[in-house]
Specification:
By secondary structure, the protein is an alpha+beta fold. 53% of the residues lie in helices and 20% in strands. It is an enzyme of class 2 (transferase).
Length: 592
């Protein structure tokens, strides 16, 4: 081989020949890279997932008397691992140690972590699998407090690294905080009189009071903060997070989640009942019983009057029953349609999950090819300068050196676009588990809705325009449901256009006078007949029944907007329709 290279390359070219030989060897070896990457994905699915958790946070997760991991989180993780075909290994320790272990890679996932916006900058959260309410605990002889603000100036114990540790620091209560390794240590300090109050999650707190027999402790305020409880992975580990999300969804559909939840969190005993409580409840029972006996005496004397009144009521009940039956029939139709939409959402989520795998390979390989091309260009340019143009991939190198970087950039941009579309579809189809009290950006919701229906918009019109006003105030609500409203409105506008030359305009702005955030959608379609305007949001009313319309889209949308405290208005002049969506602006309350 070396002899042939000496014949092919002139003297002085041996070093260059070695470089070219290395280049060609790399090209041949790079061919099976996609197969190797696919093998790596399969290997990742079979490896053992290390799951971290708190060793002393009952009933969520703890080490039992036999030295084994136990609790709600542990049972839930085992069930997810079983349905997803994963192997898991549990490592329970102090909470601060487990958070460090996640960031250092010693554990792959934390099975129970309360969500906060600050924490989401460090880790990625799953959909919530529980809600944790926190309470203020104190001794029975402590002065009464009614909120976290009243703890200022008092000694407070809190779990180190826990969500309430972060929260109290942000609220300016860090000056007298005593940090403990476990919530149980915080309660012991209060029971012993060394600390005045402890802020602990209500369920673990009541559980530990009962188990440790801390009879002098009571929850002074039962709910001072509520947080979503999720799985957490290191930032960017989307593949592992999607497997836990998918497994959790399966458990909820099959009923296993409810069984596990009821086993550990369904019933929590409260503080022991004292004699005064027994007397109070006995009075509540005995006093009504005395009145009930007197009522029976009166009832026996007025029975004949009720018989006559009952006869008159029967006629009214028959009419009401017919009305209820009609409402039940309509509700059944709505449930059938809702079930179809739920099934479609599951299908979309599954397809999106399958698309994510090849898209991930594209996004992984494209940067490698770009770096390879950058390194190889130095050698090829030198060869081009010394020997002139040559053929590369069937085309002159002078052309390929301009086209290849553009092609690689297009491949990477296309992969990112596919991932963005898939993420939007998964968000839109994901089961709604939020409380509806999130602070959202209406511009972001509108942009996501436009991306979701972009293929329909391109088919309907060549003149689609948007205007997003910068600096809009946020609104409070559920982003997924607001996106659903905007998707319905945009689809209706597209269906109203008779040809592609007619346009659609979407704009947002802030109505400072009424303090509302407004989205206005204007189409140049066929318009709405005046007699139909007042019935647009009635259930099952549709003018497009021959096109498969159900009459539920605008009805559901109006209900969602009403739940968010907003309005949905329609105007039509025969040459188009204008829909105006208004939602109250949200302003964060500032302490005086």
């Amino acid at each position: 081989m070396r002899a042939k290279l000496r014949q092919f390359f002139p003297a002085g070219w041996r070093e260059r020949g070695s470089l070219l030989l290395a280049l060609f060897t790399f090209c041949f070896l790079a061919a099976p890279s996609a197969l190797l990457a696919a093998g790596d994905v399969a290997a990742a699915q079979t490896r053992t997932v290390v799951v971290g958790g708190d060793r002393d946070y009952p009933p969520y997760e703890f080490i039992d008397r036999s030295g084994q991991p136990a609790g709600y989180n542990v049972d839930l993780t085992r069930a997810i691992a079983e349905v997803m075909g994963m192997k898991v290994e549990f490592r329970l320790g102090s909470w601060a140690e487990m958070r460090d272990a996640l960031h250092s890679g010693r554990v792959d996932v934390l099975q129970g972590m309360s969500y906060s916006a600050e924490r989401s900058d460090e880790v990625d959260f799953s959909v919530p699998h529980a809600v944790v309410n926190h309470a203020i605990f104190g001794r029975k002889d402590n002065p009464s407090v009614n909120s976290l603000e009243e703890l200022k100036g008092k000694s407070v114990a809190v779990h180190r690294g826990g969500i309430m540790h972060d929260y109290l620091i942000r609220q300016g209560l860090g000056e007298k905080l005593t940090l403990t390794d476990t919530p149980a240590d915080a309660l012991r300090l209060v029971a012993s009189g060394k600390i005045e109050y402890a802020v602990v999650a209500i369920v673990p707190g009541m559980y530990m009071i009962r188990e440790l027999k801390l009879t002098n402790l009571v929850p002074v305020v039962r709910n001072v903060a509520t947080h979503r409880y999720c799985y957490a992975v290191d930032k960017g580990n989307a593949e592992l997070l999607s497997r836990f999300n998918e497994g959790l969804a399966i458990l909820k559909k099959t009923g296993q989640y409810e069984v596990i939840h009821n086993k550990w969190l369904g019933v929590v005993d409260t503080a022991p009942i004292d004699w005064w409580t027994i007397v109070k409840y006995a009075a509540v029972v005995v006093v009504p019983l005395v009145f009930l006996l007197g009522g029976f005496a009166l009832w026996s004397r007025t029975l004949h009057r009720q018989v006559a009144l009952r006869t008159a009521d029967l006629t009214r009940e028959i009419a009401e029953r017919r009305q209820v039956e009609e409402e039940l029939r309509l509700n059944q139709q709505q449930l059938v349609q809702a079930d179809k939409m739920a099934a479609l959402g599951v299908l979309v989520s599954g397809v999106a999950h399958e698309i994510n795998n090849p898209t991930g390979i594209i996004l992984l390989e494209a940067p490698i090819l770009k770096r390879f091309h950058t390194d190889a260009t130095k050698i090829l340019e030198r060869y081009f300068e010394e020997n002139g143009d040559f053929t590369c991939g069937g085309l002159p190198y002078s052309r390929m050196r301009q086209e290849v970087p553009k092609s690689l950039a297009k491949i990477q941009d296309a992969g990112k676009r596919i991932k963005r579309i898939v993420d939007d579809l998964k968000d839109f189809a994901r089961q709604d588990t939020t409380s509806g009290n999130d602070v959202i950006d209406l511009n972001t919701a509108a942009q996501a809705a436009v991306r979701l229906v972009e293929p329909t918009i391109r088919k309907a019109t060549r003149n689609f325009s948007v205007g997003y006003r910068k600096g809009l105030p946020r609104v409070r609500g559920n982003r997924q449901r607001i996106e659903q409203v905007l998707v319905n409105l945009i689809l209706n506008a597209c269906q109203a256009l008779p040809d592609q030359e007619r346009g659609i305009e979407l704009i947002t702005w802030h109505d400072a006078f009424r303090d509302n955030v407004v989205v206005r959608l204007r189409d140049e379609g066929t318009g709405i007949a005046p007699e139909h305007l007042s019935r647009l949001t009635d259930p099952f009313f549709t003018t497009k029944q021959d096109q498969g319309g159900t009459g539920l889209g605008l009805s559901v949308s109006a209900g969602i907007v009403k739940e968010h405290g907003g309005t949905l208005e329609f105007q039509s002049d025969g040459s188009g329709t204008t829909v105006t969506l208004t939602l109250p602006a949200y302003h964060k309350e500032v302490d005086a």
